[in-house]
Amino acid sequence: MAAATTSAHPAHNPLAMKRAGLWLFFFSESVLFGLLISTRFFLEGIQKEHLNQLLGLGITIVLVTSSTTAYMAETAMERGRRRSAIWFIVATIGLGLLFALGVGFEWATAEFSRHEAFGTVFFTMTGVHASHVMSGVGLLVLLLVQLLRGRFSKSDHWPVSGVIMYWHFVDIVWVFFYPTLYLV
Amino acid sequence: MKGSFRIGQLMAVDLGVLTILDYTISKEIGDHQLRFVFLTIAAFAEAIPIAYYFMHISRLWRPEEH
Q1: B62 pLDDT tier (thresholds 50, 70, 90)
Q2: First to last CA, chain B
Q3: What is the interface pTM, i.e. ipTM, of the complex?
């Protein structure tokens, strides 16, 4: 009875503590990204800059699609479907790399320099975000290797959930960065 | 799996539609301030379902099933 009571409390539930810790990390990261967004508006106001709109739309659709494949990977793991989880993680990695490629192309073809106010903000925001995307891809690759080695199961897959939550967080950040940089 | 797969499908459609709506708002609304307001609302309309359905934020106060 006592054991059941204590394990139901988040403070005595290791998984709940890990999840809360990860959310605290997300909130602290949100401060960084929020400051970058406010810097953009402080320097440039609410006016649209000249960027490749179709490329921005394309890479945004790629990233939100990768969130769906990541979710499917986590769901498959929760159901013990390792093979499906592996394929959805491979798809997520591919889409993440495609997004990074799109950002790289935007950098290569940008019509402004890093010495201009908007250029400074644009390269900083997309650079910091792309570094998060690439670290997410790295974590997904590590996850893939572990899954191929037979690690994790239906009842023990916190690392899968944690990495995929991180991926969704990176997606949410872009949901705000995309209109801030391309559309406003 | 089927129910979760359906959530995944619906979210993919929802996020795709809202992203294209973002793009359309940006093209069609000339007024800077109105565009800013609509785009802010659209961004939250995308972020909240991701946090709820994909990141399972409710598990923070409803721990834990496995």
Answers
A1: confident
A2: 16
A3: 0.90
Mean pLDDT of B41-60: 93
**Burial class for A59, CB neighbours closer than 10 Å (0-12, 13-18, 19+):** buried
* Angle in degrees, 0-180, between the axes of helices A53-78 and A158-178, rounded to the nearest 10: 160
pLDDT, tens digit, 9 for 90 and up, residues A108-129: 998 888 888 889 999 999 999 9
Q: Dump pLDDT digits (tens) for A141-175.
A: 999 999 999 999 888 889 999 999 999 999 999 99
Q: In this structure, what DSSP letter does residue A149 have?
A: T
Residues A56 and A52: their CA atoms lie apart, in Å, by 6
Tokens of A184: 């406003």
Q: Which chain A residues touch B25 with a CB distance below 8 Å?
A: 183
CA distance A149 to chain B (A): 22
Q: Chain B: residue nearest A84 by CA? A: B1
Q: On the CB side of A151, how many CA atoms lie within 13 Å of its CA?
A: 11
Q: Which residues of B lie inside 8 Å of A (Cβ-Cβ)? A: 1, 4-5, 7-9, 11-12, 15-16, 19-20, 22-23, 25-26, 32-33, 35-36, 39-40, 42-43, 46-47, 50-51, 53-57, 59-60, 63-64, 66
Tokens at residue A149, please? 């080695």
